[in-house]
Design goal:
37% of the residues lie in helices and 17% in strands. It is an alpha+beta fold. A four-stranded antiparallel sheet has the order 2-3-1-4, with helices on one face.
């Protein structure tokens, strides 16, 4: 919070005024120092979070007797440009909110489409899992036992309906 502090200091000559201004300007948080008053015996210090008690005590020690007169809050004057900028910022924020709302709607539509696509997908068949075998463990699958995903035998790239090895031909011998 910016504030103006008015301190009355007993100053008789320019050397004392310069010393008082220098001391006040070196203080933490001070942004401006001015000499005011009818007899040029007041110092106006402007700054942010200035410790006014400590400043007054420092002026008493280094310069001369000082007393705190007033402390006022400084409010920057509002200009038309600032009002226009504030209105523009509000308009930009509204546009950003509208864009976010549109993006959320688009994301929701995509999520719904994904759900619909997942619902349309058939469940994976039993043959997709390598641990499943619809026939008992043996040497082969009889030709009369079709694969569950291909009940009519149209899948030629997966030859699940092959005959056992012993039925290939009468003249074949296995060792």
């Amino acid at each position: 919070m910016k504030q103006k502090i008015l301190i009355r200091v007993t100053m008789t000559d320019d050397k004392t005024r310069a010393k008082a201004m220098k001391t006040a300007a070196q203080f933490k948080g001070v942004s401006a120092v001015e000499i005011k008053g009818d007899h040029r015996n007041q110092i106006e210090v402007t700054g942010v979070e200035v410790n006014m008690i400590c400043l007054t005590n420092t002026l008493r020690k280094k310069v001369a007797f000082a007393e705190l007169v007033s402390v006022n809050k400084v409010e920057p004057p509002k200009k038309e440009d600032e009002k226009k900028k504030a209105d523009e910022k509000k308009a930009e924020e509204k546009k950003a909110e509208e864009k976010k709302a549109e993006e959320k709607k688009a994301e929701e539509k995509k999520a719904e489409e994904k759900k619909k696509a997942e619902e349309k997908k058939p469940e994976p068949c039993c043959c997709c899992y390598p641990s499943y075998q619809p026939w008992p463990y043996g040497y082969g699958v009889p030709s009369s036992f079709p694969h569950p995903c291909d009940p009519y035998g149209y899948n030629n790239f997966r030859d699940y309906t092959w005959e056992p090895v012993s039925n290939h031909g009468p003249s074949w011998r296995f060792m």
